[in-house]
Amino acid sequence: MVQKRALVSVSDKTGLVEFVKGLQAANWQIIATGGTQKLLEENGVKTIGISEVTGFPEICDGRVKTLHPKVHGALLARRDEPSHMEALQQNGIGLIDLVCVNLYPFRQTIAKEGTTMEEAIEKIDIGGPSMLRSAAKNWNDVTVVCDPDDYTRVLSEIQAEGNTKKETRLELSAKAYTHTAEYDMCIATYMRKAAGLNEKLFLEYDLKQGLRYGENPHQDAKFYAAMEQVSYSLASAKQLHGKELSYNNIQDANAALNIVREFGQTPFCVGLKHMNPCGAAVGKNGLEAWTKAYEADKVSIFGGIVATNCVVDKEMAEQMKPIFLEIIMAPSFTQEALEILTVKKNLRLLEVDMAPMETKQMQYVSVNGGLLAQQLDTETIHLTKEMCVTALKPTDEQMTDMQFGWQIVKHVKSNAIVVVKDGRTYGVGAGQMNRVGSAAIALKQAQESLAAEGKDIKDAGLVMASDGFFPFSDCVESAAEYGIKAIVQPGGSVRDAESIEAANSHHITMLFSGMRHFKH
Description:
Layout: E1 5-9, H1 16-25, E2 29-32, H2 34-42, E3 48-49, H3 50-54, H4 69-76, H5 82-90, E4 98-101, H6 106-111, H7 117-121, H8 127-137, E5 143-145, H9 151-161, H10 166-195, E6 205-211, E7 221-226, E8 238-241, H11 247-261, E9 268-273, E10 276-282, H12 286-296, E11 304-308, H13 314-320, E12 325-330, H14 335-341, E13 348-351, E14 362-367, E15 370-375, H15 396-409, E16 417-421, E17 424-429, H16 435-452, E18 463-466, H17 474-481, E19 486-489, H18 496-505, E20 509-512
Parallel strand pairs: 1-2, 1-4, 2-3, 4-5, 11-12, 12-13, 18-19, 19-20
Antiparallel strand pairs: 6-7, 8-13, 9-10, 9-11, 14-15, 16-17, 16-18
């Protein structure tokens, strides 16, 4: 019986020595390259150097070592094709039955700050992908291993049967092609960025979890995570308790985290339903932020999602527990809080990384037959009194409320209007076909909320924020009817003068931010 041979050439040497010792114990001959051979020899594994097989030295600083017919002929020859086997015999080429290869760490290299193009180029593997592809193409006869996690499975089958199972080889072939595809995509993305090319888009996502269904029970759905991990992300969040997230949970939770991102370290809490905030507030601490957010809309938050940038402690947990919530997200939970909240078996508790992040994130939205790509809207302009366009100038207190409203309204579905006061929402008007309709919803909600507190809306000194400009003066007129004292909007309408005139006539101060925040 001809002794089987394995070719080993890896960058990631995790578990390699034990794997190769197992092959050797099964009477396999080991061929190795460069650093891989050195490691194996140091650990008592007898190997054959690649140059002994090819009869040709490694050249060009190791760039050329396995690109040789005695390697690829040994991998690609079909065992069931007599002409292939005759060609190997005529050229003195022995078969290679297993390839264990993983590739130069290109992705890890370019992730390091300050990496030069020259450094990146030297981490582009040529021989490795070639061997993987050759072995994977001939999977019927050759086992290809590119992931250390597969070592145990491969070795156990060899020890039991003398070789791997055919179905295992097919699966490993698919895995090898996936590995080289991901590798080439990473290189292509890097090189195309350097060359300023953008007519193609390569995206890489790994399956995180299957979902019970999509938006509705008749729709199949899955959740994929990007290779690059970012903060404020459900893909990297740690679920501490509760049942699995649903498709709608993930959509809503993502929207909530984007709102939390606005407030950095300022204690903040938001309640959210159907991707719109139903109550949001800042406070001196997490408890105050939660209390104000809850009081902003006690009805809509039922069955909703809560996200905060504060540690959820015992006091917050005690206040949250009586309310039916789907998810609570925070940077962390105290042990006391967990003991209180985990009594509710279906309540999902998520620990989310909320570290500041400077990198611009892209947002992708599928459309029928295509994909839209844009930078995520993470910019929020800082409002100043110089942006005032009315005769009446804002107070410092009004400026603070307008800034808060401006940071919330950008995350409400357009057309969007929010009404705020003292760092909390009083009314949210979302997704109406005209802006005055959104204003009517927000203003009426604010009036009802204040009435429940025994207050008159006209005396409350409320502030209104709009994500887009006012095409007519009707929104200002509506605001005046409800006693709004300050408005912030982007400006930019051909009829801006009408809105300014209406604000002046009603003694309302108004800012033009110069930046809109449509959200579709």
